[in-house]
Amino acid sequence: MFEKFFKTNANQQEEVDLDENKIPTHIAIIMDGNGRWAQKRHLPRVAGHKQGMETVKEITKAASKLGVKVLTLYAFSTENWKRPAAEVNFLMDLPSKFFDTFVPELVENNVKVNVMGYVDQLPPKTRQAVFDAIEDTKECDGMILNFALNYGGQAEIVSAMQAIAEKVKAGALQPEDIDEQTISQHLMTNTLAPYANPELLIRTSGEERISNFLLWQIAYSELVFTDVLWPDYAPANLAEDIYQFQKRNRRFGGLNKEEEK
Ligand code: FPP
């Protein structure tokens, strides 16, 4: 049974009852606002990332308890290398800090770790931490916690096109046989099928951009933008955002049942 969550309006709180039959199967989150959270407290930016890591733990457990199948978190983009070296180094140390302490709880919650991105370009220590976590959780068959690390949606599409072009060149594939499914199958989310595409994409911190995240996969995702900064994002905020999702009318380009009559 689900707990009741409190939805926070400007001046009041109202109880939210989530429909347990309409929990989004795949939720993707752009975890934004760590820097601003730290700045507001006169702390260095990295303090925001550290607190953001704690949020990752709480949201992972909450999503798993709600029955989400895949939780994809945008932890580091192919563009984040442009940040100052000290910040990049701090971010690259986070996976080992995170998994060193959190793997037992992941196993306890039956959560399996997955990674998506250009992992071979990560520092060996970061890569190893992620691979160890994948190994340690490989028997878990509950929610998949999918980290996008050194991930970029355009680069992912370029890589998919290159792989498809190689098959065409080798005569293994005819250009006229290329369809949406062919492209999906060459993306990094292919291993998440049948939940490759997020049903709900959340971005925290008030920014309303996609920032090169899952460009192909979000064709029909519901988008929710919340003002909450990622380090402040709590399970109740996740419930609120799922509640927004549940109120949406998803038509996938078609009509509502009543409109068809
Ligand atoms: C965006 O906030 C956040 C990031 C680029 C990093 C996200 C990483 C975490 C939340 C920790 C991940 C944890 C693990 C286990 C890998 P920002 O720095 O752009 O914030 P700002 O827009 O306020 O400056």
TrEMBL record:
Its EC number is 2.5.1.-. PROSITE patterns: UPP_SYNTHASE. InterPro entries: UPP_synth-like (IPR001441), UPP_synth-like_CS (IPR018520), UPP_synth-like_sf (IPR036424). It is an enzyme of class 2 (transferase). The active site is at D32, N80. Binds 2 magnesium ions per subunit. Mg(2+) binds at D32, E222. Keywords: Magnesium, Metal-binding, Transferase. Gene3D superfamilies: Decaprenyl diphosphate synthase-like. SUPFAM superfamilies: Undecaprenyl diphosphate synthase. Catalyzes the condensation of isopentenyl diphosphate (IPP) with allylic pyrophosphates generating different type of terpenoids. Belongs to the UPP synthase family. Homodimer. PANTHER family: DEHYDRODOLICHYL DIPHOSPHATE SYNTHASE 2, DEHYDRODOLICHYL DIPHOSPHATE SYNTHASE FAMILY MEMBER. This is Isoprenyl transferase. It comes from Ligilactobacillus ruminis.
